[in-house]
Structure formats: structure tokens, C-alpha cells
Task: structure prediction
Amino acid sequence: MNTYKLIAFAVLGAFAFTGCNKKSAPETNAEGLTKIRVGYIGITCEAPIFSAVENGFFKEEGLDVELVKCEWSKYKDVLALGGFDITHHLIMYFLKPIEQGLDVKISAGIHKGCLRVQTGVNSPIHSVKDLRGKRIGVPGMGTPPFIFANRVLGANGVDAMKEIEWRVFPAGELGLALQKGEIDAIADSEPIGSLLLAEGKVRNVADQAKDAPYKDEYCCAVIINGKYAANNPKQAAAATRALLKGAKWVETNPRAAARLSVEKKYLASNPELNTTALGNLNYVPSVSGGENAVSSAAAEMKSAGMLSPTTDVAALAKKAFIHLDGVSDAWLQTLQVDKLADGQIPADQPQRLALELATIGTPFLIATCCSPASKIAK
Result:
């Protein structure tokens, strides 16, 4: 089965799911704020959502926000069918469904750098081309790490379907499978990648946060239900601005955002691990950056066989991206957020993380951008 068929199979549920559908017409509360539903899973990179809620950024935009927590397996479906109105998530995860007719829109880039391909510290694998003929562990076929690995392999002349053996493991067990020799490399996401690096178990073969051209590409963006955006452009723009302000607050106060996410119980993680993972992501929100990422990701996904060979990349990018009034890079340049005295990542963060991991000493729960909370095998 080729990659195109695998990705197509992975997203068929977006057209079969029938629950969680609600009317898109906005309602107002007693204060005159327009109600809006924001979807989330409970993962590290969703810090801008949590920060925007806790800091009142939605209210500043005239919105009464309701958070809707969804299962990972139904996330695209619930958004497309109106179970919630807006979120931010991985661009690559939505491009295949959009190609196949899923009615969602992308309005701005949120951050860069949450995916990696890693191998053991003593592995003979030193480059992407060295992965030819090897076994790569992923948290699932069609997940963002799988898509990123396919893109990287294709860009380096490796046929991901013919020259790679893919093996699926729960996200929290990828490191253990690598350590036991069941696979030669893994494709993972934050905070798994940071955890394995901190424990000295892996080194990077491909790093979306540091390697060209991926380091300049937004991995996560604001995603809006298409019908909601069409029927409520003012509210869609206001919610996008709230999320972009949340992203800028995370950029300015990464440690505070990481601790907020854990302490307010938005996600199952640990404060220092979440701080380290969040610090590895580049939160510089951008409208043009998000639009460019749609085009670049679509082009490489097509080259890697993850989109139909007949897909017009430029047409797909135009279909996927939406420009909203009052949402621009010029506005972002004027946007100011408070800088907290203890909100930045301290110089001794590696030591703080090491102490936390040593204190935990047993498997603990953590959520990634590819799976719900799961136990990390220690």
C-alpha cells in the first residue's frame, strides 16, 4: 500500500463521522459577548489556547469562549462538522483532508518546530539518507511525525514506502522500542523528543526546529470550521487575533505558559518537562508565514506521495488559506503583551529538568501532539 493510500485511509473518518454537530450561528451571553467554541486535545503546543483563555484575550475581542475537549481520533471530524468553531493545530495533518474536501480554513501561523526524527546515541545512522532500508517507529500511520518523516525522506531521495519499514508504537513507548533494538529510528513530537534528548537516549537526525527548510516553516496554525468562517467572518477574525496574542504571550513568557498549562490541568505533563518542550518551539505568530507554510508543506507532501499526483498545489493552498479583516502581520508587529518577571526559561533549565525526572523515577503521564496522554516507558 503506498503512502497516498495510507493517508487517504487515515482521513476517511472525516466524512463518516456524524456526531457533535451544532448550529454555527453565534450566540451572545448576558454581557453581550459572542459565544465561540475552541477545540483542544490537551497537548504541549496548545499553550497559546490556554494562555489566551487565562489572560482574557478572547474577552478582549468580544468573545465568550467555551473550551471543547476532543479525542484525538475524532478531532478533524468534530471541527469539520461544527462541534467546535476554531482551534490551532498542525498544518500537515489537515492538508490531505482539505484536498479530499474537508471544509476547514487556515488563517495564520502559530509556531514552528515540534517534530523530529531521532536515532540512538550510538547508532551508525548520521543522516537522513542513512535511514534507507531501516525500521522507523511512529505513533501511527498518518500522524504528523509520520508525515514529517515522509517529507524528509522524500526530499533526500529515499522512497518512504519501498525503502523504509514502518512500525507503530504508542508515543510513550517509542524510546523504549529504540533502546531494545526493535527499530532503528523514531519519528516523534514534543515533548517526547525533548524528554529522550534530556535522558541522553537519542540524537537528532532531522529536527523541524533547526534544519532547513523546515525551521522556517510553521508547523501549527489557526484552523477554522469553513462554514463558521464564511458565516461569521468577524468572530473568526476576533478569535484568530486572540489565539495569535496567546502565541505572542507564550513567546514572551514560555516558562509561565508551560506552568500555566500544567497547573491549570489543561494537559497531563510535568512543569519542567513542559517548560523544556515549550522552549524548543518557536512561537512567532505570522499570517504570511502560515500561508507560506501551507504551500511549502503541500508541495513536499505531494512529492513524497502523500497527496494525489494530480493535485494542483497552488490551488490547494488557495483553497486552504483564508485572509480575515484585521488579521495581518502589520497588526502583529504592533501587538504588545506583558513580560512576566519569572516567565522566561532560566539558564539552569536542563538541571531543573534533570532533577524533576530523577524525582519522578516512575512512568508518568504525558500528552503529545500526536496522541492523548499516555505513560512514558522508563
